[in-house]
Design brief:
alpha+beta; 113 residues; four-stranded antiparallel sheet
Length: 113
């Protein structure tokens, strides 16, 4: 379970929802391994506390090729919304047009549990 400790001074936790662009399911699956490798340092540094895929509906199985992806959700720790956006834009999901970063929803949050 992620720590609920207060973020470092000058930072906030950010609740992030990044939708996928239309018809990008195959590309998402193709670059998923690179995405997971790329976020590992962000998790280790504490920038990303939690994250994962968001679905349009509950999957019938664990077979990702059959998922109906909406996009991704993250809990990030950063000083500003702009800092979160900067990191999102560098992710392979953004650079391969899987994520629709321009329509990402990013809110400052204070998590209790």
């Amino acid at each position: 379970m992620a720590s609920t400790a207060t973020p470092p001074a000058g930072t906030w936790e950010w609740l992030v929802v990044v939708p996928d662009k239309a018809n990008r399911h195959e590309e998402r699956l193709k670059v998923r391994g690179q995405h997971l490798s790329g976020i590992k340092p962000l998790v280790e540094s504490g920038f990303i506390k939690k994250g994962g895929a968001v679905m349009n509906e509950k999957p019938e199985s664990d077979d990702a090729t059959k998922f109906s992806f909406y996009g991704s959700t993250l809990i990030c720790v950063a000083s500003t919304k702009e800092e979160v956006l900067e990191v999102l834009r560098k992710d392979i999901y953004a650079t391969t047009d899987v994520w629709d970063v321009d329509n990402a929803q990013i809110w400052p949050a204070k998590f209790a549990v």
